[in-house]
Structures are given as structure tokens and as C-alpha cells.
Design a protein that fits this description.
The protein is an alpha/beta fold. It contains 15 helices and eight strands. Helix 8 packs across helix 13, helix 8 packs across helix 15 and helix 13 packs across helix 14.
Length: about 375
């Protein structure tokens, strides 16, 4: 496994009872800003603040900033969660970005370019940007780290990405978990990992930026398929088959793009896949379930309060897969459902039974007992 945990001062899991304070040997006087106050951006700001650091949270609306600053709540996105006083919200991008050493970006992937263009004039000459986004740009097929580097005009050594099993509300409730940070600069990845940690969240480091990003993108697509199966009414066997075959499919794609295969077995791959496919809090699972219940793509996008990135990534991923000659039958059938060419009830049986020729099979011949009447697992 290529993920590793950087040397830090001791922490305890699950979470400590005493009042949180600064992290001693890991103290970093960096000025930290999070752009985007949706559920994940706000949660990530809370993660950093709970580690003892002050965080500026960039929001769109002044009234949103007032609520966070005065009542320490973000009721629209994290209902019932008390936010640390170390979080200061502002609706001024100039205020949020000027002087920031680390800018964490948590906005919809398709608006990332626009957002970066907006705050670029105030970005410091040595500032680094960390992507909390999971998507590819539809118009270019570029990963978020590539978009950040291009638009902000900074080298990839000043860009990092964070991924892993990130169900925001669970983390905001301080349920223990782990994430992974990747960057072309090991120093930056380690710095971010030490900052984004506390007594309920550990952050690991992985040098594989490509795999870490595509793991976060591709699992959303499989989660949509799992949601469709759930919405149609299929059971756990079908969903387990889709998830297993889906992991093989997205691994083949990621490796073809230059990722390390072992990354897809880590937090950014398998870990994120399990969480996103199995949690009712997952936006992509929810979108798939609505599709399975018969709602159209248009209806689903209008019913969702927040963006399900997977819906917007299907077309881009299939274009790239075609260029790389990587078979992606699950994603292709999701596209067919979205376009109305396939009924959702027809999708799950195909996913559970179709052979994916690019996956190396470890068994030869029929599985033992598979032809026996009433055979079970």
C-alpha cells in the first residue's frame, strides 16, 4: 500500500474528552482558507478548526456568513452541527484569499475554473491550493488539480488533492475516519496532512495524484449504479456484484490513465467506493436511487439540493475511456439510463452478470457449486 501516515505528535481515537487545543510540535502558523461553505467545505473547515487552528471560510452570501459567525451554525448544509468559534466566515473573496497560505477549494467541479478565476487576483505568490473536489471538467476532461494549476498559474508542486471516505455529515458528527492527501510535492502533502487532522480524523499521504483524484471521481459513477439497483428494489447480492465489478472497471480506467493500481485498493479507491455506495447520505447514491424509482435525469437534478458530481462526470469519463480503449460497461449503461435509452430495471441484471474482459480472472471454469440447485453463499 502506497499510503502512509506522516510522523506527528500523538492523537487519540475515537475522540478525546478534554478541550481541544493546538497541536504542539505540529503547530503551523499558516493562514488557512476554505472556499465553499456547502456541507463538505464547512465540514473540512471544522476538521481543521477542531485541530486547534483558525480557519477563514469563504461563503457567497453575507447572511450565510452572519449565521456562521453569530450562531456558529450552517443550518442549510449541516443541520444540528455546532461549529467551532475558530471558524470565521466572510462573503468577501478579497478578505478570504488575501494573505492565505493554504486555500482549500470545495466548490462544484464544473464551476471550479470560474471560481479560481474569481479569486486568482488575490492569491499570494507562494500560496498553495488544495482540491476537495471530486470530478473532471466536462469541457476539457481535465482533473481538478490540472484545472487549478492551469487557471491559477501555479506549478503542480503547489497543488494537492484530498480524497477518501468523506460522508460530510458523519465527519461533522465527529465519527472517526481517515482521508488521504496527494501532491507532486511530498512536503506539501505532509504539511496538509498534519494540518487536516484531529482526534477523530487521520490524514494519510499518497504520492499518486492521478489515482487519488480518479478514485474520487469514478466511485461516484458506481454509486449511481448501486443507487439505481436500490431504487428498482434489487437486494444486497446485486449491489455487491455491481460494486465488485465496478471496482475492477474503475481500476482498469485509473491504471490506463497512469494511476497506481494499489491506490484503488486504498482510501481514495475502495474506501471511498464503499462509503459512497452504501450510505443514504451519499448524493450520488441518492441520485441513482431516484433514477431507479423512475425519475428522469431532469427531475433528479432539480430534486437534489446539492450537486451529485457523478451525474456530470458520466459523459466525460466515457469519452476518455473511448480514447484509451478501456471498456466501461457499467458507466455506459448508466449513460443509457440517463439518456432514456434503457429502463432502470433492465440495468442491474446486466451489471451483475456481464463479463468485464479487462479484469484478470483468478478462477478458471465455473465457480464451485454455481451449477448446484439452490446453491448459496
Amino acid at each position: 500500500m502506497s499510503e502512509w501516515y506522516p510522523e506527528t505528535s500523538p492523537i487519540r481515537l475515537p475522540f478525546a474528552d478534554e478541550t481541544r487545543s493546538t497541536l504542539g510540535d505540529d503547530a503551523d502558523d499558516a493562514r488557512i482558507t476554505v472556499i465553499g461553505a456547502g456541507n463538505w467545505g464547512t465540514t473540512f473547515a471544522k476538521v481543521i478548526a477542531d485541530g486547534g487552528r483558525r480557519v477563514t471560510l469563504g461563503v457567497r452570501r453575507p447572511e450565510h456568513a452572519d449565521e456562521i459567525n453569530e450562531s456558529h451554525r450552517n443550518t442549510a448544509y449541516l443541520p444540528g452541527i455546532n461549529l467551532p468559534e475558530q471558524i470565521r466566515a466572510t462573503s468577501s473573496l478579497v478578505d478570504a484569499v488575501t494573505g492565505a497560505d493554504l486555500v482549500f477549494l470545495s466548490v462544484p467541479a464544473q464551476s471550479a475554473r470560474e471560481n479560481i478565476e474569481e479569486f486568482k487576483p488575490w492569491l499570494g505568490p507562494d500560496a498553495s491550493i488544495i482540491s476537495l473536489m471530486k470530478g473532471v471538467e466536462r469541457s476539457t476532461g481535465k482533473r481538478m488539480s490540472e484545472v487549478i494549476s492551469e487557471v491559477a498559474g501555479i506549478p503542480l508542486e503547489r497543488v494537492a488533492v484530498a480524497s477518501g471516505p468523506n460522508i460530510a455529515l458523519e465527519i461533522a458528527r465527529e465519527q472517526p475516519t481517515a482521508i488521504v492527501v496527494a501532491s507532486a510535492s511530498e512536503d506539501l502533502a505532509v504539511r496538509v496532512a498534519r494540518i487536516a487532522r484531529n482526534d477523530y480524523l487521520r490524514t494519510f499521504v499518497n504520492p499518486d495524484v492521478i489515482g487519488t483524484e480518479f478514485g474520487g471521481v469514478l466511485k461516484n459513477l458506481i454509486a449511481i449504479a448501486i443507487g439505481i439497483a436500490d431504487g428498482v428494489g434489487f437486494g444486497e447480492n446485486t449491489k455487491a456484484a455491481i460494486m465488485t465489478r465496478g471496482l475492477a472497471e474503475i481500476t482498469d480506467f485509473a491504471v490506463a490513465m497512469g494511476a497506481a493500481r494499489e491506490t484503488m485498493m486504498g482510501l481514495a479507491g475502495l474506501g471511498d467506493l464503499i462509503a459512497t455506495c452504501m450510505s443514504p447520505l451519499s448524493r450520488n447514491f441518492t441520485a441513482g436511487r431516484l433514477l431507479g424509482q423512475g425519475y428522469s435525469y431532469h427531475d433528479v437534478t432539480h430534486r437534489m439540493e446539492q450537486t451529485a458530481e457523478g451525474l456530470r462526470s458520466v459523459e466525460s469519463i466515457l469519452v476518455i475511456a473511448g480514447e484509451r480503449r478501456v471498456p466501461m460497461p457499467i458507466v455506459a449503461q448508466i449513460a443509457a439510463v440517463l439518456e432514456g435509452r434503457m429502463h432502470p430495471a433492465e440495468l442491474a441484471p446486466h451489471l451483475a452478470t456481464d463479463h468485464i474482459p479487462t479484469e484478470t480472472e483468478t478462477e478458471t471454469g465455473p465457480e464451485a457449486g454455481a451449477d448446484a440447485p439452490g446453491a448459496t453463499a
